[in-house]
Amino acid sequence: MDYIQGLSVQTEIFLLALGFGFILGILYDVFRTVRMIISDSPMFTFSMDVMYFLVCAFLFFSFNLVVDSGKIRLYVILGEALGWLIYYFSLGEISLRISNATVSFARRALTAIFKPFLRLFNLLNSKFKKIALFSRKIIRKFKKKAKYDLQKHKGMVYNLNGYIENIISDKDK
């Protein structure tokens, strides 16, 4: 086990870290595209960023463990950061434009495809709302009537006080 690495080993690890940072940049674009497809809400963006950082932390740990026996060195961190920045400002810009165009095209296409179904659903929804409101009114009337009917007859078994009063009054007769 060498405690002091030679320049060739350090250069090799730096280049591997540069490539690994480039891969982390690609992973960031994957997360960004998923975020664009699903939602633009700040809470979702925050949760996706946290997931990205957790995945990157695990991958960074694994990379360091494999390449440099778990030793964290400044040139490895700088190599990964530089690789990520190279990707982000070169192919990341192109990837962002392509993913924006793809997502907007997919949204327009899906909107065009599902627009008739959405209209039909809204029409049915409005009709069912009217039926539901009418049914709710009828149900309320029945509940009031049923409550009145249940309280009106004191001789029924489930109304214990009325049942006892009827028994007592029947004995007096």
List its salient traits.
single chain, 173 residues, 2 domains, elongated
Protein described:
With 173 residues, this protein is an all-alpha fold. The protein has two domains: 7-89, no CATH class; 124-172. Helix content is 87%, strand content 0%. α1 (7-38) runs antiparallel to α2 (42-68) and α1 (7-38) packs across α3 (74-89). The relative contact order is 0.09. The model has no long low-confidence stretch (mean pLDDT 83).
Proportion in helices: over 70%
Domains, number: 2
Mean pLDDT: 83
Shape by Cα distribution:
elongated
- Helix and strand sequence: HHHHH
Radius of gyration: 35 Å
What is the number of beta strands?
A: 0
Sheet/helix structural class: mainly alpha
* N-to-C span: 110 Å
Number of helices: 5
The biggest beta sheet, please?
none
**Unreliably modeled segments:** none
Proportion of strand residues? under 5%
